[in-house]
Structures are given as C-alpha cells and as structure tokens.
Specification:
The structure holds two protein chains of two kinds.
Chain A (H helix, E strand, L loop, with lengths): L1 H5 L2 H6 L18 H22 L2 E2 L5 E2 L5 H6 L2 H35 L4 H9 L6 H12 L4 H6 L7 H25 L4 H8 L4 H29 L3 H6 L7 H9 L5 H33 L1
Antiparallel strand pairs in A: 1-2
Helix pairs in contact in A: 3-14, 5-9, 5-11, 9-11, 10-11, 11-14, 13-14
Chain B lengths: L1 H31 L7 H6 L26 H6 L4 H31 L3 H16 L2 H18 L8 H27 L2 H8 L4 H30 L2 H6 L6 H11 L3 H28 L4 H12 L1
Classes of the chains: A mainly alpha, B mainly alpha.
Chain lengths: ~300, ~300
C-alpha cells in the first residue's frame, strides 16, 4: 500500500518543481515493478502461507484445516524445542564471536598493509567459495575424523560435537565476514590514524577512537551477515553434528520431511523469524545508513 | 614508532597467513583424498575387480588414507548420477542467474536515483529476502509451490522450475544491490548529457549506462550463478524428483561417499582456475599488462 502511493512521487519531482536542478535524468520508476511484483508473489506470498500454516491444525495425513489455532505455538514452547532454540542461538552467537575475532585482523591486514596486493588477497579469500560448500564440509569431516590424521596424532575426538559444528560454522562463514569488513576498512581514510599517532595516541586507542567508529557499519553488517544464516544453518549440524547435535533449522526441515507435520514446522519457522526480527531491524537500520553515507 | 608498527604488521601477517591456510586446508584434503584407495579389507574381499567400480557400501572407510590410486577420475566421468546432476545444476544456475540479473538491473535503474520515500519500502523487502534464514524460505516456498500448483493449472510441479523460481527471490535481490551500488557510484553526469542531447531512455541505456554497468552486471551474474549452483537447502525442499549436484552430494556425504566425488570436485576446481587464468591473460592483453588492473577486474567479479 505504501509502495503504491510512494512510487509515483519521484516522477512528479522529475518534472521539475522545487528541485535545485531544473532537469534530472531518470529511468522510469515502473522498471522496478517486475522485481517488486516478483518479491510480493514469491516471497511475501510464501511467507503469508507459512503464517497461515502455523495457525492451522493437522487433521490427518497430508490434510490440513486452516483456522486460528495456537496449538502449534504451544508445542514450540515445549522444553525440548526451547532447548534447541537456545542451543542454536548460543552456537550462532559463539560462532559469530569466533568469526569476528579470527576474521577482523585479516580484513585489517588486507586493508592496511597490503598496498597494491590487496586485490590478490581478496581473490585468495574468494576462491574457496568456488568449491562446493558440501565438499568443503565433508573435507572438514575427514580432517576431524577420530580415525584420521589429526584424530590419531592429537588424540582428539571432537567429531559430532559442539566443537566440530562450531569449526564448521566458522570455516564456512569466515569469508562472508571478511569481505564486507574489508570493504569498509578499505574506504577508510588512513591518514586519520597517522594524525592520531602524531597526536601521540596509543595504537589501541587510535583503533578504538578512530578506526572502529568509522568502520562500525561494515563491522555490524558483517557480523549480522554471519549470525543470521548461522541461526538457520541446516547442513553443517547435519554433517558435522551427525544428527546428534541438531539446530532449529534441522527440526524445521524434519517437520516437513520425515515428521510430516508442516503446521508445527511452520510455527517453528515463524518463531525463529520472530527471535531474529530484533537483529533484522538493527541490520536494516545500519545497512541503509551505510548506503546513505556511500552515495 | 616505526619499529612498533613493523612489529604489529608482522603479527597481522602471520595471523592472516594462518587463516588463509585454514581456508585452504579442506580443499587440499579434498584433492588428496580424490586419490584414495578403498580400504585394504575391501580390496581383499573383491580380488580382480577394478577398485574404483566398487559401490560406496563396499569400499570401507575412505575418511582415512588407504593408499594411492588415480582410477576415480575416469570412474567419476562415467558416473550415472553425478554427471547428470552437475548438468542439471548448471542449467538451473544459468536460468536463475539470467532472470535475476534482468530483474535486478531493471530495479537498480529505477531505484538508484529515486527518492528515499519511494525506495525504502522496496529496500526493506530486499533486505528481508536477504536476511530471512534460507531454511525458512525453503519450507515456505515448498508449501507455496504445492498450493500454487493445486490452485493454478499451469503452475509448474515441484522440479527444475520451482527451484529456479525459489532461487530468484534471493538472487535478484542480490543482483539489484550489486548493480545499484555501481550505478550510484558512477554518478549521473553522462546520463544527463545524453538526455540533454536528446537521447531517449532506451538509447541512453544502450549507449551510455549499460556499457559502464557491464562489470557489475557480469559480477552479479557470476555471483548469482555460483550461489545457485552451490545451493543445497532450497532445492532440497522444492526439487520434487529433480536431482541437483548439491542434493546428490549431500546424500553421498550422509549415506556413503566414494572418492569419485572428490575427483569430480577436483576437476571442477581445476576448470574454474583455468577459466580465471585465461580470463586474466585476456584482460592483461587488452589492458596493456597492468597486473593491478587485472586484479581490479577480478575484485569487481567477486564483491
């Protein structure tokens, strides 16, 4: 609704009144319509059906009665599922923290010290993306296998545990954090650091008072780009957790596959979205703010 | 001061090298284990049989090193499930990326210079599609597609086209953001000049905007193709009976894998690297040998 009323506005201003420039070249606003229609049908439409399903009841095999039943949400509040929720959010938070601690220095190193070789380093970070995510996770399984080289030499048996899943999460999402943080660090004016040094600031306080505030949008974007998909992770816990260390995403998937209870799965999915909505709002605020700076 | 900054530079460099080693370690392991033999027990109980023709259930544990063989490479190329799945995945990724880029390009042109009032509702929608966990989109798409097929006769059954339709949601949003960032960054003086000289929107687009946007368009296509080709979760729920490469891989990893999978992945990685090197050589020739220019082009492809 807001879209309908707002969309014609730019064309009205394009014809001239009240602009500091008399003529502004613009492509017509209707070019956005196919994309908008697509998202409304296939994204919002799908989400609407998901909400409707979460209030429905299962009345037999493959049989669903729509209604307004809160039964599925009560089932979500069962201690078993709450426990999996807490575990998922805790693992995602821990995984994000590790990713930040491991990845930030790499992005900083690339932006500050590499000079004209920084794009080569960027390529080096991107190349692993071109090998299947599943194969890389399987290769991690080979590395972590208790009968394998690492397991035998270090006497480690961490396969199918929180550690294995955590390593898998950090491994798969590290590049996704490094890239946005690098691009915000790269845009920073490093002469400000020299100025801070000249004013005899210690390196760490220069970092805390100059670098961090200036690159905060990229930092937050990167952290949330990692945290949000981690909470919905499906493949890593299935392969490295071996079904013994499931995330909420696996429970949602099972409700649709093996358990044959789509209304319950829908209620779980909506609950996950609600739990994440706080972070999503922060993300939108930060991301649109950064774009305003950029343009 | 200089010594202090040198020391921290060394510290950062060591850390970065360790992280890059961590990123490449599984890939190195993948390549090494493409040359792994079936276990000694498996070889002993199948004398005289080509070891690489054994099914996953009869090769023993291949997560440990059993000995060297190169026979998985020819075996992989004749595999009846892997090769068709790779072809299907490539087709899906191509169609999804092409449609996503067209939708994203159109939206980027319209939105880039629109006032925030008109743009923000669309932006919120786009960011939502990017931040909703994929498992949620996957199950929502599954029930949506099933209902749509029941209600609308011409709506496709679960399969190739529903995977494409589902992936466009994420990929077109991503394409729009990549292309728009470039479009906003370019400034509008050249478009203004074109419009001033009497060129219509279509001529301006063809002669001014598109040529300058080409790197971003290409980059959006490549990224979209990569995501789509490598995507497991959405296709796993919306595939019907269509098998994609990640779906086949997932069930292999869960229920029995042979080193033929490693061999295929190794060959695909080599093909990708060859494509990068060839593109780099062509770019270098056309750019008069500046390696920085070449690297810049690749960075544009990646980010």
């Amino acid at each position: 609704m807001t879209v309908d009323t707002a969309a014609p506005a730019p064309q009205a201003t394009a014809s001239g009144a009240g602009e500091h420039r008399s003529f502004k070249p613009r492509y017509p606003a209707w070019l956005a319509l196919p994309s908008l229609a697509y998202q409304i049908i296939f994204f919002l439409g799908a989400m609407a059906i998901l909400v409707a399903f979460s209030f429905a009841t299962q009345t037999g095999f493959n049989q669903i009665t729509y209604g307004f039943s809160l039964e599925q949400y009560k089932a979500v509040l069962d201690p078993t599922y709450l426990g999996i929720f807490v575990r998922t959010l805790a693992m995602a938070a821990g995984g994000t923290l590790l990713t930040v601690v491991i990845g930030y220095p790499v992005a900083y190193w690339m932006a500050r010290y590499l000079g004209d070789k920084k794009l080569l380093a960027l390529l080096l970070i991107i190349v692993p993306f071109w090998t299947s995510f599943l194969i890389r996770t399987y290769a991690l399984k080979i590395i972590l296998d208790s009968n394998g080289f690492v397991g035998q030499t270090l006497h480690l048996d961490i396969m199918y545990s929180a550690w294995a899943v955590g390593i898998g999460l950090v491994y798969n999402y590290l590049p996704l954090f490094i890239l946005p943080v690098f691009s915000s660090l790269e845009r920073m004016d490093w002469t400000l650091i020299e100025a801070a040094n000249d004013l005899s600031a210690k390196p760490f306080s220069a970092f805390r008072q100059v670098t961090l505030p200036l690159t905060l949008p990229g930092f937050v974007t990167g952290a949330l780009l990692v945290f949000i998909p981690m909470t919905g992770e499906y493949v890593v816990p299935a392969i490295l957790g071996g079904g013994k260390f499931v995330f909420i995403g696996n429970v949602i998937g099972d409700a649709f596959n093996s358990a044959q209870n789509p209304p319950f799965g829908s209620a779980l999915a909506i609950s996950l979205m609600l739990a994440l909505s706080i972070f999503v709002v922060i993300y939108i605020l930060v991301a649109t703010k950064e774009e305003r700076f950029g343009s | 001061m200089a010594r202090n900054s040198n020391r921290s530079k060394t510290g950062f460099s060591i850390w970065a090298v360790l992280v890059i080693v961590f990123l490449y370690l599984p890939i190195v392991v993948m390549v090494i284990f493409a040359f792994n033999q079936p276990s000694a027990d498996a070889l002993a109980s199948n004398p005289g049989v080509d070891p690489c023709s054994l099914p996953a259930t009869q090769i023993g544990n291949v997560s440990v090193w059993n000995g060297f063989t190169a026979c998985w490479f020819p075996a992989a190329l004749h595999d009846p499930t892997y090769i068709p799945a790779i072809i299907t995945s490539a087709q899906i990724a191509f169609v999804a990326a092409a449609i996503s880029v067209v939708l994203g390009l159109m939206a980027a042109l319209a939105l880039a210079r629109m006032k925030p009032r008109g743009r923000i509702p669309f932006d919120i929608l786009v960011y939502l599609t990017l931040v909703v966990p994929e498992i949620v989109i996957a199950v929502a798409s599954l029930i949506f597609f099933v209902q749509a097929h029941n209600a609308v006769p011409f709506f496709p059954q679960l399969g190739f086209w529903t995977i494409v339709l589902g992936q466009i949601v994420f990929n077109s949003a991503l394409a729009m953001l990549i292309i728009r960032a470039r479009f906003v960054g370019m400034g509008d003086t050249l478009e203004e000049a074109a419009f001033d000289l009497g060129a219509g929107p279509l001529a301006t687009f063809r002669q001014v905007t598109l040529p300058r946007l080409m790197p971003a368009v290409f980059s959006a296509f490549l990224l979209s193709f990569t995501f789509s080709f490598d995507d497991y979760v959405l296709p796993a729920f919306t595939n019907g009976t269509t098998n994609t490469w990640p779906i086949v891989l997932y069930s292999a990893v869960r229920f029995g894998i042979t080193p033929a999978v490693n061999a295929l992945a190794t060959m695909m990685l080599l093909l990708t690297i060859a494509a990068i090197v060839i593109t780099a050589l062509i770019l270098r020739r056309s750019r008069g040998g500046s390696s920085e220019g070449v690297a810049k082009n690749f960075a544009a492809l990646g980010v």
